[in-house]
Write a structure and sequence with these properties.
Helix content: 40-55%
Shape: globular
Structural class: alpha/beta
Number of helices: 8
Order of helices and strands: EHEHEHEHEHEHHHE
CATH superfamily of the largest domain: NAD(P)-binding Rossmann-like Domain
Number of strands: 7
Strand content: 5-15%
Number of domains: 2
CATH topology of the largest domain: Rossmann fold
Strand order of the largest sheet: 3-2-1-4-5-6-7
Radius of gyration: 17 Å
CATH class of the largest domain: Alpha Beta
Distance between the termini: 40 Å
Largest sheet: 7 strands, parallel
């Protein structure tokens, strides 16, 4: 038996990268998976991978910054599987620039997807979790929550997610709902590759440059984050709530 047998997990932004790795990892532990992304087509590969593992999965199109779409998506998942036990807020994007060059739209878009989206999804999820007196919510923060040049919007959103996790942990603890955050360091994903290309360097050059400052001397893999999330949403972590766990190849202060 898997640790998550009978549980239903919603993972946002799970069409690729860390979100896809999380979907596969939770499926391996027995969870049924709802894959949320901007389009159902973007979720196809993840759904197929989960089904190959032997679990059930559905693809749901959802813009997490829209309250109406979030409400409809969670209702669709509940109608299909009967309940919602786990939420992993992973949807995100980058709009990097130095603060004096950053447009209002770039600021708003990043805050809307990362922070507002995580709030709206958590708000929708807690309705089910409070009624059943059980649930697990994980926010995806980042090492960049500590600050990083050229990422004022991203840093602000990721720092705020840690505060949101602590606040929801205080509010929902009496309903047996755990809320935590995971803060990845440098992870080798398509998003990181795209950031490297925008900076005019290759992914390999970026890895070589930044790995020098990581105590473990390597970039992380999506599976490194998925394994931590699998722990946080399991009953093994039933007495952990309101915390942020940095997964960065070394102490958080040594990596940025």
């Amino acid at each position: 038996m898997g640790k998550l047998d009978g549980r239903v997990a919603i993972i946002t932004g799970a069409g690729r990268g860390i979100g896809r790795a999380e979907a596969e990892r939770l499926a391996e532990d027995g969870a049924k998976i709802a894959v949320l992304d901007l389009s159902a087509e973007a979720c196809g590969d993840t759904v197929e991978a989960v089904e190959k593992i032997g679990s059930e999965a559905i693809a749901v199109a959802c813009d997490v910054s829209s309250a109406q779409q979030v409400e409809a998506a969670f209702q669709e998942v509940a109608d299909r599987f009967g309940h919602v036990d786990i939420l992993v807020n992973n949807a995100g994007l980058l709009r990097d620039n130095l603060s004096f060059k950053m447009s209002e739209d770039d600021w708003d878009k990043v805050l809307d997807v990362h922070l507002k989206g995580s709030f709206l999804c958590s708000q929708a999820a807690q309705k089910y979790m409070v009624d059943q007196e059980h649930g697990k919510i994980v926010m995806t923060s980042s090492i960049v929550a500590l600050g990083n040049k050229g990422q004022a919007n991203y840093s602000a959103a990721k720092g705020a997610l840690q505060s949101l996790a602590r606040t929801l942990a205080l509010e929902l603890g009496r309903f047996n709902v755990n809320v935590n955050a995971v803060a990845p360091g440098w992870i080798e994903t398509e998003m990181t590759k795209e950031a490297a290309e925008r900076a005019g360097i290759s992914m390999e050059d970026m890895k070589e440059q930044f790995s020098k400052g990581i105590p473990l001397k390597r970039f992380g893999r999506p599976e490194d984050i998925a394994n931590v999330v699998a722990f946080l949403v399991s009953d093994d972590a039933s007495y952990i709530s309101g915390e942020t766990l940095y997964v960065a190849g070394g102490p958080s202060s040594s990596v940025v």
